[in-house]
Automatic annotation (TrEMBL):
It is found in: Golgi outpost; Membrane. Keywords: Glycoprotein, Membrane, Repeat, Sialic acid, Signal, Transmembrane, Transmembrane helix. One of its GO terms (molecular function) is fibroblast growth factor binding. Its main location: Golgi. It holds the Pfam family Cys_rich_FGFR. The keyword Glycoprotein applies. InterPro entries: Cys-rich_GLG1_repeat, Cys-rich_GLG1_repeat_euk, GLG1. The lineage of its organism: Eukaryota, Metazoa, Chordata, Craniata, Vertebrata. Residues 49-59 have a biased composition (Low complexity). This is Golgi apparatus protein 1. Residues 30-59 are annotated as: Disordered. Residues 1-25 form the signal peptide. The chain crosses the membrane at residues 1115-1138. It comes from Scleropages formosus (Asian bonytongue).
Length: 1148
């Protein structure tokens, strides 16, 4: 061992003094006798004059020294000794020396006494004879310490070795005197072997003090080492290093700090700086093994702590950060674990790196995170020093160096209890400005070193801010458990969360989210999967190919790898592509947390920084930033659009990622969706359930808004609807390539399905599973006009003008637009017409009808398919069990259908041949998207009266005539032309709640009072239609129901047959009709007679019908027959004459 690598003979000599006081053989209680057997003069006395000729001790006689020289007897120190030291210590030179060294800082001693003490100590270090005393006192210890047993004797190296290994000394007497005597060496740096030689230039360069004897008193010598220590720690904190301490001096400084680590008395500068604070805070703390240091560290930021002591403690902590061995308790507690996990045997690293506290923490934390065993004592020490790093940013030189500007600009005056660090973390989040990249990396490194994710108590600022929340919301979790942070995140933005805790939590989570390893639960559950799938390294190692931030992205891609992507699970090859169940649960937990704040998603924040500032600067409430990005998806930059799209796609598969939404929807989930919510795999089922129960009473406004927003976002890309994507992906690629928007994809696929159905295709091009999901999507879209972007954009102005107070949802806006259809702009009107056309073809898409008539459908139409639902409801409309609201809704839909034959698919199909045959002139004037206001149906009604329609078409028109006869509103032509007349002549009948044909009857009765020709014509048409079928005249049919049953039961309805039967019965005196029937029939005859005068027959068929229903039918038919016979006879006569003339001409 090198001679200057250790503390030398001074310790040995002092040890001899101490040893002799306790030796069983030569006991010298006062420490003054010569301990050697031959009783030679005391070395200090013998050499004193040579060391200091001018000193007052020069006059001391040699005989006195030989007999037992005492410091107390020297004239130079007598006055100071009397004033400062208790009398019982005077007989022991060591006690006197310790007393005068440890005097109070404001107490001075005479320079001559200082000089005497120095020479006494210095001369003690020069005599190797006392090594034999150390051999005697430590005779059982030396063989146990291999390094010391091998030391060459006689050169003073043995005691130095014992000092180095004093932590391993178990022999009480040896340990006591080595520990006690060590204090003296630290009173003057010049007494430490080699220190003065190694650091002379650095002392002068840094102006740390003089090294000439006598220029500095005994107290100021500790300041020299303190000055060098500050120079060492400042070197790492300054970018422009004005002076670099030599490596050998650095080692010497750290070695001194290491050797003084067990007893704070040995750090003279800190001892004198903190003497009062030690009494104030650590009075009952026993010195030794670094206990006083730790106690003072724990009280470093107390208000009563003196600034001088705080500075000295900070310097000491900075030295510990550079070399963990400067902490006695940490080095001792973790020695075995460091050796076990080879934390100081990395040959690829310089020794200085291995000694750094950060390296030790990272190495041992890696072992803990890998599930290895680290002793509890070591983990306790690690916890203390990790908390220390989080409390005081200045202990991390990289932060001091790289974050100086941010600290000065944003975080000045917040030094204590981790406040500066949290302020920097807040700046790093972007809440208070922009942070430099180097500063950001330094903060990230510090968080990894301190690892507060594993124990929230490490972060004192967080611990204090969140204490009340933890006590209320997380009291069921053991203190210090990593799940505490997850618990706090689960209660973020809830009533239990306090604002200060919210800020501290988000600041810490921002950095934890950027390195998956900093979440200990995630790392423990997923380290195997990460190594297998993402090729990660150990906990404290990183890879450029897979940086920490990219590992989580890799994990969640595999967590949500679908069965279609992985083909079939089961084989070893495909199974290896999936995460373990435990890991997937943790990935889901992290995704839930990240959804709370866009800044907790590193990839999202990085790629969308510009877009967030451009589009979402005013969106500051929880969850609003992501919603804003989703709303502006088409406007985002490509990188941002991709990451937002991927996240939205992920949410569609597992909506529970949207923690805020799930929290808002908790009541409706518990009531209606608890079964799907409890599923391990969501696959879009929960969101589908929420949409289906969107209007339940348990649905609150926040949940409804969130669900609707997600539906609106889904419209932007069909991939955002997980179930739709998985069911229809192949069909979309085949039938709707290059179409991305969901609404366009739905229209494309729906059109394909409809066309295949109308054309009776043998095989549907859209797969069955896709058709089923397509139905779900169409039903969802029908609920809110905003879910159909084209319709919404076309009608925005109309909505604000006509429906300003109508809430979205429940198809209320769409219904409002339908009610105000005549006032809509052309573009909106066309869109609404197309929408109604689709709804009439498929009534299940009519959200309002399905909602209002839900119970009636269950009662009357359980066996009807979706497309015949409205037809079924119409058939049961007049049932006594029909709900009035549903009946009213059915009537509205009937009114809509009768405005245009295209809105009545049953009629359209039945009259497919009749419409172009009889009403082509009307079709020629028609335009897409505009109603024909019942003109085609009116045309078909006239042809019905003429009995010229096909059987199927006639049946449908008969139904329409019957319905419109009961309710005039179902006849758009009548309503359009007779509105004024109805309000003038039939106001009371029109106001009736139940329409049973009174309005039409009123118009018929008041036919002569009608002023408008167009209205009169419509009423005459009604009269004409009623001739064709008595069912078309509900008043007459009701009055004559019994007579029809008695006299016309065998007559088939239609084509005027039953009406002719009644007319014949009326003219037959043998038949007695009911008085009401007879009266109504006579009224009808009068009306028809008037109609014949006002509106003569328009054609032969019309004339024939009038003849058939005329009371003089027999007479008219007889006259017609007579005319025919006369014509026939004339024809015969003329034919014979022409025949004879022709023959005569031939004969010629």
């Amino acid at each position: 061992m090198a001679a200057c690598g250790r503390v030398r003979l001074f310790l040995l000599i002092v040890s001899v003094s101490f040893c002799v006081c306790r030796s069983a053989g030569d006991k010298i209680p006062n420490g003054n006798a010569n301990p050697l057997p031959n009783r030679q003069p005391h070395p200090a006395v013998a050499q004193y004059p040579a060391a200091g000729n001018a000193g007052p001790g020069a006059a001391v006689s040699q005989s006195r020294r030989a007999a037992g020289w005492k410091l107390a007897e020297e004239e130079a120190c007598r006055e100071d000794l009397t004033r400062l030291c208790p009398k019982h210590t005077w007989n022991n030179n060591l006690a006197v020396l310790e007393c005068l060294q440890d005097r109070k800082e404001d107490t001075e001693i005479a320079p001559a006494c200082n000089h005497l003490l120095w020479n006494y100590k210095f001369n003690l270090t020069t005599d190797p004879k006392f090594e034999s005393v150390a051999v005697e006192v430590c005779k059982t210890t030396i063989p146990e310490i291999k390094e010391c047993a091998e030391e060459e004797r006689g050169k003073g190296y043995l005691v130095s070795c014992l000092v180095d290994h004093r932590g391993n000394i178990t022999e009480y007497q040896c340990h006591q005197y080595i520990t006690k005597m060590t204090t003296i060496i630290y009173s003057d740096y010049r007494l430490i072997c080699g220190f003065m030689d190694k650091c002379r230039e650095d002392i002068n360069a840094l102006r740390c003090g003089s090294i000439n004897t006598g220029e500095k008193d005994i107290h100021s010598q500790g300041e020299v080492i303190a000055c060098l220590e500050k120079g060492l720690v400042n070197e790492a904190e300054e970018q422009s290093q004005r002076y670099v301490i030599k490596d050998e001096c650095k080692k010497a400084i750290l070695r001194v700090a290491e050797l003084s680590s067990d007893d704070f008395h040995l750090d003279r500068y800190l001892y004198f700086s903190c003497r009062d604070d030690r009494e104030r805070f650590c009075e009952n703390t026993q010195a030794g093994e670094g206990r006083v240091y730790k106690c003072l560290f724990n009280h470093k930021f107390e208000e009563a702590m003196s600034e001088k002591c705080r500075d000295a403690l900070t310097t000491r902590q900075k030295l510990i950060a550079q070399d963990y061995k400067v902490s006695y308790s940490l080095a001792k507690a973790c020695k075995a674990d460091l050796r076990k996990y080879r934390c100081n045997m990395d040959t690829n690293l310089p020794r200085a790196r291995e000694a750094r506290l950060s390296y030790l923490l990272l190495c041992l934390e890696s072992a803990v995170h890998r599930g290895r065993t680290v002793s509890g004592e070591c983990q306790g020490e690690m916890l203390d020093y990790r908390r220390m790093l989080m409390e005081d940013f200045s202990l991390s030189p990289e932060i001091v160096l790289h974050c100086r500007g941010e600290i000065e600009s944003h975080c000045s005056g917040l030094h204590r209890k981790g406040r500066t660090l949290h302020c920097l973390m807040r700046v790093g989040r972007g809440d208070k400005g922009v942070v430099d990249d180097l500063c950001q990396r330094s903060l990230q490194t510090l968080i990894q070193e301190a690892d507060p994710g594993s124990d929230y108590r490490i972060d004192r600022a967080l611990n204090e801010a969140c204490e009340s929340v933890i006590q209320t919301a997380c009291k069921h979790i053991r203190s210090g458990d990593p799940m505490i942070l997850s618990c706090l995140m689960e209660h973020l933005y809830t009533e239990k969360m306090v604002e200060d805790c919210e800020h501290r939590l988000l600041e810490l989570q921002y950095f934890i989210s950027r390195d998956w390893k900093l979440d200990p639960i995630l790392y423990r559950k997923c380290q195997g999967d990460a190594a297998r799938l993402c090729h990660t390294h150990s906990w404290n190692e990183t890879s450029e190919m897979m940086p920490p931030g990219a590992v989580f992205s890799c994990l969640y891609r595999h967590a949500y790898r679908t069965e279609e992507q992985g083909r079939r699970r089961g084989s070893e090859e495909t199974e290896s592509l999936f995460l373990s169940r435990d890991c997937k649960v943790e990935v889901q937990r992290i995704l839930h947390q990240r959804a709370l704040d866009v800044k907790l998603d590193p990839d999202l924040q990085k790629r969308c920084m510009t877009d967030l500032g451009k589009w979402c600067s005013e969106k500051t409430d929880p969850g609003q930033e992501l919603e804003c990005l989703q709303d502006h998806l088409e406007d985002l930059g490509q990188d941002c659009r991709d990451v937002v799209g991927n996240l939205t796609e992920l949410e569609s598969e597992d909506i529970q990622i949207e923690a805020l939404l799930i929290r808002a929807c908790e009541p409706v989930i518990q009531s209606h969706c608890h079964e799907v919510a409890d599923n391990q795999i969501d696959s879009g089922d929960l969101m589908e359930c929420l949409i289906q129960n969107k209007h339940q009473k348990e649905m609150n406004e926040k949940c409804a808004v969130g669900v609707t927003h997600f539906q609106l976002v889904q419209m932007k890309d069909f991939r955002f609807s997980y179930k739709f994507k998985m069911a229809c992906k192949e069909d979309v690629l085949k039938l709707c390539p290059n179409i991305k928007k969901k609404v366009d994809v739905v229209i494309c696929l729906s059109t394909t399905v409809r066309n295949d159905t109308l054309q009776d295709a043998k095989e549907q091009r859209v797969a069955l599973k896709c058709r089923k999901q397509l139905r779900v999507e169409e039903l969802e879209m029908s609920e809110d006009i905003r879910l159909e972007p084209e319709l919404y954009d076309a009608c925005k102005q109309d909505i604000s003008r006509l429906c300003p107070n109508v809430a979205f949802g429940n198809a209320q806006v769409i219904e409002c637009l339908k009610d105000n259809k005549k006032q809509l702009t052309q573009v909106c009107h066309q869109k609404i017409f197309k929408l109604q056309e689709f709804e009439m073809m498929d009534p299940e898409l009519d959200y309002q009808l399905m909602r209002v008539c839900k119970q009636m459908i269950k009662r009357f139409c359980t066996e009807s398919d979706a497309k015949s639902m409205l037809q079924c409801l119409k058939q049961n409309k007049n049932s006594e069990l029909m709900d009035p609201k549903c009946k009213q809704m059915i009537t509205k839909r009937q009114i809509t259908q009768n405005t245009d034959y295209r809105l009545n698919p049953v009629l359209r199909k039945a009259c497919k041949a009749d419409i172009p045959k009889f009403c082509q002139n009307i079709l020629n004037k028609a335009s897409d998207g505009n109603e024909l206001e019942g003109q085609v149906i009116a045309c078909l009604k006239l042809k019905y009266a003429d009995q010229r329609l096909s059987m199927d078409c006639e049946d449908q028109i008969r139904v329409i005539l019957q319905e419109s006869a009961l309710d005039y509103r179902l006849d758009p032509q009548l309503q359009m032309h007779c509105t004024e007349e109805i309000s003038r002549l039939c106001a009371e009948e029109a106001a009736a709640q139940e329409q049973t044909g009174q309005v039409e009857e009123c118009l018929k009765v008041n036919l002569l009072k009608i002023k408008h020709d167009s209205c009169k014509k419509e009423v005459l048409n009604i009269l004409k239609e009623s001739k064709a079928d008595i069912f078309v005249d509900p008043v007459l049919h009701t009055a004559c129901a019994l007579d029809i049953k008695h006299h016309c039961a065998a007559i088939l309805p239609g084509r005027g047959r039953q009406m002719s039967c009644l007319m014949e019965a009326l003219g037959d005196k043998r038949v007695r009709l009911q008085p009401e029937c007879k009266k109504r029939l006579q009224d009808r005859i009068d009306m028809w007679s008037y109609a014949a005068k006002v509106a003569p027959a328009e054609g032969f068929s019309d004339l024939a019908m009038q003849v058939m229903i005329s009371p003089s039918k027999n007479y008219i038919l007889f006259m017609i027959a007579l005319c025919v016979c006369v014509l026939f006879m004339v024809g015969l006569l003329c034919g014979r004459i022409t025949k004879r003339v022709t023959r005569e001409l031939k004969d010629r």
